[in-house]
Amino acid sequence: MIENVVEFFKNLPPKQCAQCGEKIEEQHECYGNTCEKCNTI
């Protein structure tokens, strides 16, 4: 059975930077995969 959408997002693990592995403080639905230190845009 499909679980509650809110519970699904609450249970997602924290995102990690693809370059340094540091935890990224942003929303889970964001497509970014690098932290502010590693982001060169």
From TrEMBL:
InterPro entries: YhfH-like. It holds the Pfam family YhfH. It comes from the Bacteria. This is YhfH family protein.
